[in-house]
Amino acid sequence: MADLKVGVIGCGGHAQGHFAMIKDEPRMQLISVAEIDDQRLEQAKLTHEPESAFSHYREMLDQVDLDVVYVVTMPGHLLPIVVECLGRDLHTSVEKSPGMNVGETQQMLDAARKSKGKAILSVNRRYKPEVLAVRKLLQERGGAVQVAANYHKPPSGLQVPGRREVAPPEIICDAIHHVDLLRWMAGRAPTEAATAVEVYGHSWHGKRGGTPRYNAVISFDNGCHGTMMSHYGVGYRIQSAEVHAEDMSAYLDLTRTPNITLYLDGALCEEPLDLDAVGGPDFNETRHFTDCILNDTTPWSPLEEAVKTMELCEAIERGHRGRL
To answer: Fewer Cβ atoms within 10 A, N terminus or C terminus of the chain?
Structure first.
């Protein structure tokens, strides 16, 4: 029998990736789901075959014995659900963005600090094996001196009527993935991200709906510097990063399956990345969260980290220029 009994709240598109990771984790068992939309609830029952299903999350929490809950709703719906799960001492995975603003994230953190349950923010770029392998190489060479990220998409789906009421601006709701990735790649310790101390940001919301443009230059507390570009309404979905350390450069194409181009000591490195050294090619956030729960360790993306990433996202959104 699996070690951890799991419930999922919210069965929309983002939840499907979590369902897949839960299914592939032998120490977890999906027990129950909750979804307010009848059609999505029925589809989840057919596809994922939980033991029980509910149209309201509180009914699930009241009636089902769970160890872990994945809260995968729109950002505007997260706060009361996450706070209640943590208040019940459940280990809780929080979908990004963690609320509508950093104030809501802080409320989740306050609840986590009082809870016996662990909380993890679902920023999955931190857990990609290729990212971890490159990060390990960076740290072996003294850490990154420069990091950069691009996160581009066609016009945002947030322009759909009613969506803005439950989702913050794109840099917070969506491109947060690569804002957080900058912090993670800039970190000098294996389990720590760097903290932004200065940012020169620019945001422009475009002439068409759903086409914001963001640019930022960031200084971190360890001396590393970063740049961020995120433009919506451009030609294609492009997600990439580049990182530089002493005698090392890596270019990461993260648009689909990660593809890494690595240069070491002035030459193209033909050797494959050592993924086994960072958990193997199948490592992901759910495996990490399971390890943390069973071994009583802190996740790499706790809500303390979520607050810092949200603060940086909000600074870029408002065009902050100067010290944070």
So the answer is: N
